[in-house]
Amino acid sequence: MNKDLTTAQNDYAHFLPALSGFYATYVGKQRHPDPVKGPYIEDARIPSNFQNGVESLNYLNKTEGAFQYKWTLYSAGHADLDVNKFSPKEDMVRNRDRENTWLLGDSGGFQIGKGVWEGDWKDPNCPKAQKKRDGVLRWMDAYMDYGMILDIPAWVARSPAGAKATGISTYDEAVKATRINNDYWMKHRTGACKFLNVLQGENHADADDWYEQMKDYCDPVKYPDNHFNGWSMGGQNMCDVELLLKRIVTCHYDGLLQSGIHDVMHFLGTSKLEWATLLTDVQRAVRKHYNPTFMVTFDCASPFLATANGQIYTSVETPVQGKWTYRMVPSVDELKYATDTRTFKDATLQDGIFKTFEDSPLSDGLLVNDICTYSVGDVNKIGTIKVLKGGVDLDKAGNPLLDADGNTTVRGRDSTSWDSFSYAIQMGHNVWTHINAVQEANRQYDAGNNPKMLMGSKFQIQTIRDMINEVFEQPTRELSLAKIVEYRPFWMQVPGTRGAIGKKTISAKPMFDKLFDQPETEADDIEFDEAKLEELTDEQLHR
Asked: Which residue, 492, 396, 407, 397, is CA-closest to 453?
C-alpha cells in the first residue's frame, strides 16, 4: 500500500479529487475547537488507527495525513467567498502548505447552470451576478494556484431551473454572459492566481465557435500582462477525443499552447480509467512535440458522492483488453456492528458483505464499529432513536410513530448506524482508492496491458497512443487535422463520462438528459445523487 501518492504520480495526467466542503469541514473545524462545545470530533470518536487524529484525513498535509497527494480541485460553488471572514471549515484549503500542494479552483459555472446562483448574467451591472463574480475572483486570487474563469455553460438555456434563474435562453446569450465574466477577470485579476479559459459547446460546430470567440483571452501578444494561462475543457470538449485533439492542434498553431505561458489543460468531470490513460498519452505527446511543460489535469467528485450515496470503493479491475473500472458496492450499515470489534475488512469479508476489499491507509486497522457507531436505542445528534428492521418506528420523544389511520409503523430496514463522521472516514478511503486506481491503470497501460476501449479493432493492434503521437508529430496544422479525420472511426469508439459520441456530435446537439437523467451501469459512470451530499453538508451547519 502506497501512502505517498505524490511520488507515485510519475508523468501521468493528474487526477484531481473534487474535494467536498463536507469533507474539508472535519479537518478545518477540528483545528479550531469551539470554545464552548470543545473539539468538533471528540477523542473517543476518532479511530485508533488515525495516528494524527482527524488530520489523518488531510491528504494535502505532507507530514500528518494518512496518505499524501499534492493535487486537488476545490469549487467556489461551496466555498466561503468572503476572504475577509475567518472560516474554520475551509482551513484545509486556506491554510495549506502552498509549496507542497497544488489547487485548482472551479468557478461555480455548474451552479449557474443548475439555477443555484441567480442573476441576470447578461447584464454586467446586475447586483446579484456582480456579487458572485467579484467574490469568486477574489477567493481564487487569495487561495488557488490556478482557477477557471466563471463560464456560463452552453446547456444552461435548456436547463429549466438554470434558464429561469439566469434569464439565458440561447447559446449566444451564454457566450455573451461568459465574455462579460472574462472581461471582468482580465481587468480585475491580481496575478496571484493563474486562470484557465473555459471552453464550452455541445457539438463540434458550437465548440469551434466558442473557441474562436474566446481564444483571444489567452493571447500573450494582444494581452501581454493579463492573458489567461491555459484551458479548461467543458461541454463536448471534455468527452470527445476528436474534438480535444483538434483543439490542441489549433491552440498550438494559434500560438496559444506555449511553454511557461499556457501550461495547463483541465478536463471537467472525467472519471473513466481508460480516459486517465488516454489523457496521459495526450500529455506525453504534447510535451514531446509542442510544449515540454504541458500538464493535463482532470477531476471528478465520485469518491465523495459515492459515500454520500452509501457506496464504498472495494477494488479496481484492469483486465487485459477488457473493461476497466472501479468496483464500488453498498457499504456496511447495520446496528448490530456497533459492538463488533473486528476490523472493517475482516467483518465485511467474513460476513459476506463484500466479495473483495482492498485496504487504504485509512481503512487499514479501522474497526467496523468505527463506521457502524450507533446501536439499537441510541439517539443521534438530532434526536432520532435507532430502531431495528421490523421494530416499531419511534419519534424523537420515544413514542410510536403512527400512520394516517392511527396505526403504528414498522421499520422497513435498520435505522442507519452511521454518524456524519462515518461518511467522512469512508470518503477518505474512497479518495485514496480512486487516486491509486488511476495510477495503477497508468502503470498497467505502460506495461502493455491495453483496455478494450483503447484498442483500435479497425486498425489491428494499433493503439490510441500510436494515433495520438501521429497526430502531433505532423509538420503542419493541415496534416495534423487530416490525421485526426483519418482516425475518426476509432475516436467514435471511445466514449467519455458524459456527452454523446458518434456522428451526432458533429452536426447535432447531444441530448440534454445525457447530462443529468441517464446514468450508466458501470461503476465509473454512475451519476450519483448530489443532493445526498448537500443534505449531509446542511446537517453539518447545525452541529
From this structure: 492
Burial category of 342 from C-beta neighbours within 10 Å (exposed 0-12, middle 13-18, buried 19 and up): middle
Got the DSSP string for 405-460?
Answer: TSPBPB-SSPPP---HHHHHHHHHHHHHHHHHHHHHHHHHHHTT---GGGB-GGGT
C-alpha cell at 360: 487504504
The C-alpha cell that represents 175 in the structure block:
457566450
* Distance in angstroms (rounded) separating the CA atoms of residues 257 and 248: 8
Closest CA to 326 of 344, 303, 355: 303
Q: Are the CB atoms for 186 and 220 separated by under 8 Å?
A: no
Crossing angle between the packed helical segments 477-486 and 464-473, to the nearest 10 degrees: 160
At 5, which amino acid appears?
A: L
Neighbours of 412 (CB within 10 A): 8
- CA 398 to chain centroid: 41
DSSP at 34: B
Cα–Cα distance between 538 and 533 in angstroms, integer?
9
- Grid cell in block for residue 97: 502548505
Nearest alpha carbon to residue 280 among 259, 262, 298: 298
Label residue 542 left, alpha or beta by phi (over 0 means left) and psi (-120 to 50 means alpha). Answer: alpha
For the chain, give the number of residues: 543
Chain-centroid distance, C-alpha 192: 24
415 close to 387: Cβ distance less than 8 angstroms = yes
**Beta strands 325-330; 311-317: pairing state:** antiparallel
Pairwise CA distance, residues 193 & 210, whole Å? 24
Rounded CA separation 421/74 (Å): 20
Please report the beta strands in 6-99, taking only residues with DSSP state E, as ranges in sequence order: 14-19, 71-75
Cα separations in angstroms, 396 against 383, 393, 418, 419, 535: 5, 10, 18, 17, 20
Among candidate residues 138, 233, 266, the one with its CA nearest the CA of residue 192: 138
Supply the Cα-derived Rg of the chain in whole angstroms.
24
- The tens-digit pLDDT sequence of the chain (543 residues) is 789 999 999 999 999 999 999 999 999 999 999 999 999 999 999 999 999 999 999 999 999 999 999 999 999 988 999 999 999 999 999 999 999 999 999 998 888 888 889 999 999 999 999 999 999 999 999 999 999 999 998 888 888 888 888 888 899 999 999 999 999 999 999 999 999 999 999 899 999 999 999 999 999 999 999 999 999 999 999 889 999 999 999 999 999 999 999 999 999 988 889 999 999 999 999 999 999 999 999 999 999 999 999 999 999 888 877 888 889 999 999 999 999 999 999 999 999 999 999 999 999 999 999 999 999 887 777 667 776 766 667 666 667 776 676 676 666 666 889 999 999 999 999 999 999 999 999 999 999 888 877 775 554 456 789 999 999 999 999 999 999 999 998 888 887 755 445 444 554 343 333 333 323 234 555 666 777 777 777 777 655
What's the sign of the alpha-carbon dihedral 204, 205, 211, 212?
positive
Check the CA dihedral 506-508-512-513 and report its sign: negative
